[in-house]
Design brief:
The structure is a single chain. This protein has 34 helices and 31 strands. The longest helix is centred in the C-terminal third of the chain and has 26 residues, at 556-581. Strand 21 (467-471) and strand 22 (476-479) form a beta hairpin. The strands form six sheets. The chain has an eight-stranded mixed sheet. Strands 24-25-26-27-28-29-30-31 form an eight-stranded parallel β-barrel, surrounded by six helices. Strands 1-2-5-3-4 form a five-stranded antiparallel sheet. Helix 5 packs antiparallel against helix 6 (112-130). The protein is an alpha/beta fold and 852 residues long. The protein binds phosphoenolpyruvate (PEP) and magnesium ion. Magnesium ion binds at residues 716, 737, 739-740. It comes from Actibacterium atlanticum.
Length: 852
């Protein structure tokens, strides 16, 4: 016999008892709060984590003393009480104390049938959950004496002893089995997967039963006051006469709706006073527990008893609505409403989502590159996507990988699936910018371009025109159509983001390339545009040919003529961006990609180009080949192009300045920001700056109008970070392009990382995909070095991050800590970034969801 350790075994829950979440669990604490609110909660006793731990080890509490806390002959229930309701726990056991003698008395009190049912249920629960007997032998239901006898006999046959009659022994065995179930490996692993620490404790609550069976109105039910998907006020739940526990939720026959309902009988009609009482307690718990609670109740002989209450489990959109409405009703402060919402949960509100409760036939999995879900017919080319959009048919663009040539196809598609790629590959970045659901790096697909088919891992073959669904939130490709939840950019969401903006102490801008992106950015409350990738503007139908003419120009004059045509188009682009952003900062990055990205690669495309340029096909082909590079991402791109073909940047600078003058005429004064990409040396900045200053002076003179602008550098090569001190001398701002900086720091192609990233993360080579979450140790150190050297040279230097990490809550924490002025991310990530930044400003720690 193990020795008893001295501690308080149990406590009767009274308004003043010493009950805490940390020692007794959330359910025990919540029950104490219900008792303090004077709800009709039956007498309840709480066993602490220590006590339960001892029970599992074979040291029993003083059982007679526990029983003595209740009325003589009371039936009892035992429920788990862990710190967090999501961690689960063993199921409740009801009707402890039932034995032959109690059964006989109960027949007199409430009649034979209910007495038989209660006893039979207890025998069954005890046999299955405590004695661990085969459930098949204890399935029979019924309220006759014969069924009860059969259950008692089955128990005796299996256990070689009669069903235990001593309530203290019954209680002891129930407590032991629940305590041991909690300490079992499976239960531990399950709760650890939900975030519980390995040594999380379990408390138990023992409660006097209010019998839901008997002659006067008796039964049990569950009520909540909001819809769990929308969060809107709505009384939902069920009540079942002559029942116990949560039976009303699982029974079909004879259940009552709570509120009056055309579909059947309701508690409101059947027991109006009790219904009104429940509504009152719902309101009291909302105001005093500051939460939307789900209440489990029993009606015993016409009297209401409240057995338990837990926080209503809810979707993210419901969580936002509940938090906002509690704050608007002055029940919680706004700061608390903000802290109650996990930033990433907002993604669920911004896009359509696959209904988590619906069926899904997943045929492939990959990297969840851009959230949301969409259904459409498979297309294998951008041309087919555009044709499909022209017919008004939703389509899913399936590609090996996407290139800038696919931009128009991506615009036309409802979602994108690629075989290759990672978090910052072309498809991923563009899809996030467009708010398109996207799954990349699905490497076990076999894509056959010739017969336009897609073979998937389980052997199925999909063809062009087949309907599939892309779930970019979970990284899944699903066969056919599935049930969706629409986006929820409602008043509650807007209120929450408005409050977040008020407390935020780091700016959040959007990466926006087109007027449509800028509109989304504004709509999502961005503080401006942190990165406008101008190259995307050249992929429009009318512009691509002019762009190609410029690339193919043989003489400076020919090039100037082509650029002359592009100038008004760019001016128009920038004017619209400035107008949409009405005075907010707009940072325009000068042309970045290698020129050959604008050239066709198929024979057909080359022929078309030859026709358009009126050149022999062989010349065009030779020229295209001459522009090819072994490693274009490290080749002639960014500022290197700006220095070797300076006319391009000059044209862009002129377009920016002329647009500045134009937009300032009718709206707020514009101070454009011009950013030079891929810098690695101070001299590059000097050369570009001299030319841009020259263009600014020329435009000022020509138009007789003065304007301001800010020239800055995109720090995306390790050398630029290391030499930030000297680069800063010519820069008004430094914006860290962490996509390329990560690529170059690791020497890891951002377009190919998807192939092995899964294996790398799984084997803990990297803790996470560094293109997704900033690598604070390596890339982060470069950021800190760059920031420190830049600020030392120029204390008022504006610092920011404009790589994809700008939208990642952990990376935002790093940037804020490092004193950055703002982060910039895809428009659809702005709300998440904003709330994450608000949490940081409020010092919110990861909030644990408790019972209330
Ligand atoms: C970057 O490199 O971090 C960046 C923002 O630019 P891009 O993704 O266009 O290369
Ligand atoms: Mg870059």
């Amino acid at each position: 016999m193990q020795k008893r350790v001295e501690f308080e075994d149990f406590a009767v829950i009274t308004p003043t008892a010493d009950i805490s979440v940390e020692r007794h669990g959330g359910r025990a604490k919540c029950l104490q709060r219900l008792i303090r609110l004077e709800m009709p909660v039956p007498r309840t006793v709480a066993l602490s984590f220590d006590a339960v731990h001892q029970i599992a080890a074979g040291v029993m509490p003083d059982k007679p003393a526990i029983l003595a806390a209740f009325e003589e002959g009371a039936l009892l229930s035992v429920r788990p009480s862990s710190e967090d309701q999501d961690w689960g726990g063993p199921g409740a056991i009801l009707n402890i104390g039932m034995n032959d003698a109690r059964h006989a008395r109960l027949i007199d009190e409430i009649g034979e049938a209910p007495a038989n049912t209660i006893y039979r249920r207890f025998v069954q629960a005890f046999a299955i959950d405590v004695a661990r007997l085969d459930p098949d032998m204890f399935e029979a239901s019924g309220s006759d004496a014969h069924t009860l006898r059969a259950a008692l006999d089955a128990y005796e046959d299996e256990m070689d002893e009669p069903f235990p009659q001593d309530p203290a022994r019954q209680l002891g065995e129930v407590l032991r089995s629940m305590a041991r179930a909690w300490e079992g490996t499976t239960a531990r692993l399950l709760r650890q997967a939900k975030g519980a620490p390995a040594d999380a404790g379990l408390g138990l609550v023992v409660q006097q039963m209010a019998l839901g069976l008997g002659p006067e109105e008796s039964g049990s039910g569950v009520i909540k006051f909001i819809d769990r998907v929308t969060g809107l006020p709505q009384v939902t739940g069920r009540y079942l006469s002559q029942s116990q526990g949560r039976a009303a939720l699982t029974h079909g026959d004879g259940v009552f709706y709570l509120t009056r309902d055309e579909r059947g009988a309701s508690l409101q009609d059947h027991c109006p006073e009790i219904y009104a009482e429940l509504l009152k307690w719902g309101e009291v718990s909302r105001r005093r527990l500051r939460e939307e609670m789900e209440i489990e109740f029993t009606i015993a002989g016409g009297q209401l008893a409240i057995l338990d209450a837990v926080r209503v489990p809810r979707s993210s959109r419901a969580a936002v609505r509940v938090a906002v409405s509690l704050a608007e009703d002055s029940i919680i402060p706004r700061e608390e409403a903000l802290s109650r919402i996990e930033p990433r949960a907002l993604t669920e509100l911004l896009h359509s989502q696959v209904n988590p409760d619906g069926l899904r036939d997943v045929f492939a999995r990959g990297i969840a590159a851009s959230p949301g879900a969409a259904t459409g017919k498979i297309v294998f080319s951008s041309a087919a996507a555009q044709a499909s959009a022209a017919r008004g048919e939703a389509c899913i663009l399936v590609r090996r990988e996407t290139t800038p040539e696919d931009i128009r196809g991506m615009h036309a598609a409802s979602a994108v699936l690629t075989e290759r790629g990672g978090m910052t590959s072309h498809a991923a970045v563009i899809a996030r910018g467009l708010g398109l659901p996207c799954v990349v790096g699905v490497s076990d697909l076999v894509l056959r371009w010739r017969d336009k088919s897609l073979r998937v891992p389980d052997g199925r073959v999909f063809h062009e025109g087949d309907v599939i669904t892309i779930d970019g939130t979970n990284g899944e490709a699903i066969a056919g159509e599935v049930e969706m939840l629409p986006p929820a950019l409602d008043d509650a969401y807007r209120a929450l983001l408005g409050w977040a903006e008020e407390v935020c102490d780091i700016g959040v801008r959007a990466n926006a390339d087109t007027p449509a992106d800028a509109g989304t950015a504004r709509d999502f409350g961005a503080d401006g545009i942190g990165l406008c990738r101008t190259e995307h503007m050249f992929f429009d139908d009318g512009r691509l040919t002019v762009m190609r003419e410029m690339i193919f120009a043989k003489t400076l004059d020919d090039r100037a003529a082509a650029l002359e045509q592009l100038l008004p188009m760019q001016r128009e682009d920038f004017t619209r961006l400035f107008q949409i952003m009405s005075g907010q900062p707009v940072c325009i990055r000068l042309f970045d990609p290698p020129l050959h990205e604008f050239l066709p690669h198929s024979r057909e495309g080359l022929r078309e180009l030859a026709e358009a340029l009126d050149m022999p096909l062989s010349d065009v082909t030779r020229r295209v080949e001459a522009l090819a590079e072994f490693n274009p991402m490290l080749g002639m791109r960014g500022v290197r192009l700006g220095i070797t073909v300076p006319e391009i940047y000059e044209m862009q600078a002129r377009a920016i300045f002329e647009a500045t003058i134009e937009a300032s005429k009718t709206g707020e004064a514009v101070v454009p920001e011009i950013m030079i990409p891929l810098v690695s040396a101070k001299r590059e900045v000097e050369l570009v700056k001299t030319r841009i200053d020259g263009v600014a002076a020329a435009v000022r003179t020509e138009q007789g109008v003065d304007f301001d602008f800010r020239l800055g550098v995109m720090v995306e090569t390790p050398r630029a970070a290391l030499r930030a001190g000297e680069i800063a001398q010519h820069s008004a701002f430094l914006s860290f392009g962490t996509n390329d900086l990560t690529q170059m720091t690791y020497g890891l192609s951002r377009d190919d990382a998807g192939r092995f990233m899964g294996a790398y993360v799984q084997q803990e080579v990297y803790p996470e995909d560094p293109f997704h979450t900033l690598d604070v140790d390596g890339v982060g150190e470069l950021l800190l070095i760059g920031a420190e050297r830049g600020r030392r040279a120029s204390p008022n230097m504006t610092l920011s991050v404009c790589g994809e990490h700008g939208g990642n809550p952990e990376s935002i924490a790093f940037c804020r800590q490092a004193g950055f002025d703002y982060v910039s991310c895809s428009p659809f990530r702005v709300p998440v970034a904003r709330l994450a930044a608000a949490h940081l400003a409020l010092g919110v720690k990861q909030r644990r969801k408790t019972y209330y």
